[in-house]
Design brief:
Blueprint lengths: L1 E5 L6 E6 L4 E5 L3 E6 L2 E5 L3 H12 L5 E5 L5 E5 L7 E6 L5 E3 L4 E5 L2 E7 L2 H6 L5 E7 L1 E6 L4 E6 L4 E5 L3 E5 L3 E6 L4 H6 L4 E6 L2 E6 L9
Antiparallel strand pairs: 1-2, 2-7, 3-6, 3-10, 4-7, 5-6, 8-13, 9-12, 9-16, 10-13, 11-12, 14-19, 15-18, 16-19, 17-18
């Protein structure tokens, strides 16, 4: 499978060339165009229980669109519903990612799409909520950001503090805590930051530059 991310500086789309036998699972309604011998069908990625959990707990679609090249090779263009960036994630065994609600765009057949529950404290205090999208297995996934996406590669011992309204995706094995932005409660409230997430390396974390707005996701 070959892919190219087009118009990344404006309104990005992903153009994929599928050879016979290849397929891509997309967020419902993500397809823009298709050419060649490609067919499209609906599926419940992760099974009935997984689809229900994804729909009710993370606001993702119950169904996903499956675009495959069983009848012959072809090209498909997909895109997110909000202005921003699209980033590719290489998913491997032992290298799973957690993604904010609404961030999933597409993945290859070998990637597992699941719902992950955060701990009680993290779910209550973080703007991500109690449930996230987990991408595991083996293959390629595409995630869409709100605004531009920025990547941080943290080495062992390195830390970064991120406003939790800007989190996009991070490696599942990364350690992070939810803390007050300032030392005192009044300062945290008056600064407008509230709570933040402190990540510790090693690992990779992505942010999006525009503030997470639940109404838009």
């Amino acid at each position: 499978m070959e892919y190219e991310i087009l118009h990344q500086d404006t309104f990005p789309v992903v153009q994929l060339k599928l050879e016979r036998g290849e397929s891509i699972h997309c967020e419902r309604g993500a397809m823009i165009t298709k050419r060649g011998g490609l067919t499209i069908s609906g599926d419940v990625k992760g099974g009935l229980i997984g689809g229900l959990a994804r729909s009710f707990l993370t606001n993702e679609s119950f169904f996903t669109s499956v675009i495959d090249a069983q009848k012959g090779a072809g090209t498909v263009m997909i895109g997110p519903g909000l202005p921003g960036s699209v980033i590719p994630l290489k998913i491997e065994e032992g290298n799973s990612y957690l993604v904010e609600k609404g961030g999933f765009l597409a993945c290859t057949a070998g990637v597992k799409l699941e719902t992950k529950m955060q701990g009680l404290v993290k779910g209550f205090l973080s703007k991500e909520g109690f449930f996230l999208i987990k991408l595991s297995g083996s293959g390629l996934a595409f995630v869409s950001s709100y605004g531009a996406a920025h990547k941080y590669d943290l080495k062992l011992g390195e830390e970064i503090v991120i406003d939790n309204g800007h989190l996009l995706a991070w490696q599942e094995n990364m350690h992070y805590t939810v803390e007050r932005a300032a030392s005192g409660i009044i300062s945290s409230v008056t600064s407008g930051e509230g709570f933040v997430c402190k990540f510790s390396g090693p690992g990779t974390v992505y942010i999006h530059t525009l503030k997470y707005v639940a109404a838009l996701r």
